[in-house]
Amino acid sequence: MNDRTRTIPSICFECHSRCGVLLEVKDGKLVGVKGDRTHPFSNGYTCPKGRAAMEIIYHTDRITRPLVNIGKKGAPRFEETSWDNALSVIAEKLLDAREHWGAESVVLGSGTTRGMAPYLNRFLSVFGSPNFMAPSNMSGGPIVVGSSATCGFALIDPDYAATSCMILWAHNPEASWPGLYMHDIRQGLKNSAKLIVIDPRGTHLAKKADHWLQIRPGTDVALALCFINYIIENNLYDKAFVEQWTVGFEQLKAHVAPFTIERCAQITWIPPEQIKAAASTFASAPRACIGPGMGGVCQANDAFDLNRSLTILSAITGNLDTRGGNLNCRPPTGKRSCYGPDYSAFNNLPKEQAQKKLGLDTYPLLEFIPIPSPPQAIWTAVLDEKPYPVKALGLFANNSVCAYPNSARVVRVMEKLDFMFAVDYFHTPTTALADVILPAAHWTERDDVEDLLMKNHVFCQQKALDPVPECRDEKQILIDLAQKMGLDSYWQSVTEILDHRLEPVGMTFEAFKVKKKVATPIIYKGYEQKGRFRTPTGKVELYAEYLNSMGISPLPIFREPAESPVSSPDLSQDYPLILTTGGRNLVYYHSSHRNIESLHKKSPDPELQIYPQTAERLGMHEGEWVFLASPRGKIKIKIQYDRDLHPQVVHSPHGYWYGVDNGWQRVNINMLTDDQQLCPVTASVPIKALLCRVEKINQLINQGQPI
Ligand SMILES: Nc1nc2c(c(=O)[nH]1)N[C@H]1C(S)=C(S)[C@@H](COP(=O)(O)OP(=O)(O)OC[C@H]3O[C@@H](n4cnc5c(=O)[nH]c(N)nc54)[C@H](O)[C@@H]3O)O[C@H]1N2
Ligand SMILES: Nc1nc2c(c(=O)[nH]1)N[C@H]1C(S)=C(S)[C@@H](COP(=O)(O)OP(=O)(O)OC[C@H]3O[C@@H](n4cnc5c(=O)[nH]c(N)nc54)[C@H](O)[C@@H]3O)O[C@H]1N2
Ligand code: SF4
Ligand SMILES: [Mo]
């Protein structure tokens, strides 16, 4: 290594795993990304996305100047402008909207969090709007809501390394969370833990599991209730815990009684003996944990009930808040953590203004377990002006058009807005609809603190490089915008922001850079010390009386997916296959990374996984481009044989658009997904269980490429 090369430890922000990395910098440029072996979760692991940081930063397509649209919506012409002018335009438009329509008519949104939630929320509370939009309703939010409503904390920290049985419930961490979970999972398996995988696809982990339950998409609640019933009927539950720490056991028992193994087998298409064997393995394990997929169990019309049932399953087997079970970790940053109450616009506005938060009128539980406003509630406010009009939207790190269901509707929303600005590294179908685009600094070019999903840790993300000229740290963008708008109580500098976040840790960011990470001790059975769970009764709410008053079922209910061969047999005549979407691909993050050559060439085309005979019966063969149609639209996709799938189930990846003219319309699966039949409690979107059909493309026009 040349003596001019410096190595700076940091945290990778290309995905939620947040691996520890060592950034190698030479002459002010990033030249290498290596894994940090001292990181407690990733232990030196990096994936191709993280290692592609150089390609991202120095990509010729990177947006490096603020741009204003001098063309029309739908036919944009972007012209470079100064930061001063771009921020003045945004400031004027947002203030204008506030004056005419009220502060709530302005929404700021972020995609799956790249750490922006605290800074955007604080900006909104200073500005006066309660409307922070994020995809939480399809990504982790239903876990938080379902489990917090049941036991007072979120079921997001399975203690894989110390367990004797783990369930990966709609969860394939080898692709989706390799840096955060795989080390612990391997550790647990090395210590002879049993592995149960519940997934319609035969993933690598499913194939090596002790029990792989190949479930019919969208029927998970039936399976969870059946597990609960089996465990109660066979006296396999933890009687002491149930007696002392739960309420409503008798009601639960009666409620789950109809979910016999035989009935569940009919609903889920899983052979009865497999259900029985898996339930018995789980219940008889001395320590067991449930690892719920952050998207897998959050994208269904009964996502609330699913996450409630999983929490109940963990509780009645005595695995809540125990070593080897499902932990209740607290980040050292406490109230100043990423979604901490100190930053929530909802908490920091006068009650009357906070109550205007979009989504609250339909999803009342979100007042008590606040997750961000669901995009679908914002869309209704834009298009139908209900319950009031939204006029201006600012998006940070989000490609709504490709990432969110019903892309055609998302485009209509963006065309109708009076004003929209977007902050991104690259042009996307979403930035194409913006009036102003701002260039963001890459994660290697900015300082931050990271605690989201980091169990009991907070990590230092350290700036290693100056931003490519004119790209700007998004925290600085908000500071500059606040100054333009006269929002004087916003922070004045990035250092002030970071020191504020670290105050509960008792450290400045300067000191934190040396320390790199801080952890709080893990406490087991915290409820014993406190004498209660953080729920209305202080107990685990098996039957939750308090939900009744909000019109929510006090017991978890299995609902057929709104679109399924059972609930819509007529529709399934036309659309005979069950479609599940969005199984993660290691080389991409949602619709991102598509233009990164080293990643793109690993997975260039959208591929529909389908059982070979199902395709062949339709006269289709592997590698052939076909149409995939749902009641909402039609896209092109390539056939990929998958012998492990059920013959009636297909899987499509999400996020494809790049490199195809109008790709968002022609190869993006979200042209086919539904944003109407939402979970009535969490607004979760049903994108894991829909109906579809595959159609052959006229050979004359099919030249083997998307057209
Ligand atoms: N059909 C289907 N659709 C899905 C899913 C599914 O399973 N099936 N999953 C859903 C889930 S769980 C989620 S969370 C959403 C995610 O949706 P999004 O968060 O919108 O994800 P991306 O498509 O990756 O868009 C992120 C954009 O941010 C930009 N970007 C990356 N890093 C930064 C940064 O640091 N700053 C800025 N300003 N920009 C940055 C990228 O270039 C990209 O254009 O997608 C959802 N979409
Ligand atoms: N490489 C990469 N990693 C990512 C992301 C990414 O885009 N790319 N996105 C990140 C984000 S924002 C999120 S929310 C997480 C998501 O994290 P996870 O939800 O863990 O995502 P997956 O690993 O795809 O696991 C979901 C699994 O559920 C299965 N499945 C589909 N339908 C059903 C069903 O009805 N029931 C059951 N039981 N299983 C079903 C799928 O086949 C898939 O294997 O991933 C994060 N990590
Ligand atoms: S898994 Fe890859 S992209 Fe995600 S944090 Fe780790 S290195 Fe970065
Ligand atoms: Mo997500």
Automatic annotation (TrEMBL):
Keyword RNA-binding among record annotations: no
Similarity annotation? Belongs to the prokaryotic molybdopterin-containing oxidoreductase family.
| Pfam families found in the cross-reference section | Molybdop_Fe4S4 (PF04879), Molybdopterin (PF00384), Molydop_binding (PF01568)
Instruction: Give all residue intervals belonging to the 4Fe-4S Mo/W bis-MGD-type domain.
Output: 5-61
Coiled-coil ranges (or none): none
Molecular-function GO terms, alphabetical: acetylene hydratase activity; iron-sulfur cluster binding; metal ion binding; molybdopterin cofactor binding; oxidoreductase activity
Q: What class of enzyme is it?
A: oxidoreductase
> What's the EC number here?
1.2.7.-
Q: What is this protein called?
A: Molybdopterin oxidoreductase (Molybdopterin binding subunit)
Species this chain originates from? Desulforapulum autotrophicum (strain ATCC 43914 / DSM 3382 / VKM B-1955 / HRM2)
Carries keyword Nuclease?
no
List keywords of the entry alphabetically: Iron, Iron-sulfur, Metal-binding, Oxidoreductase
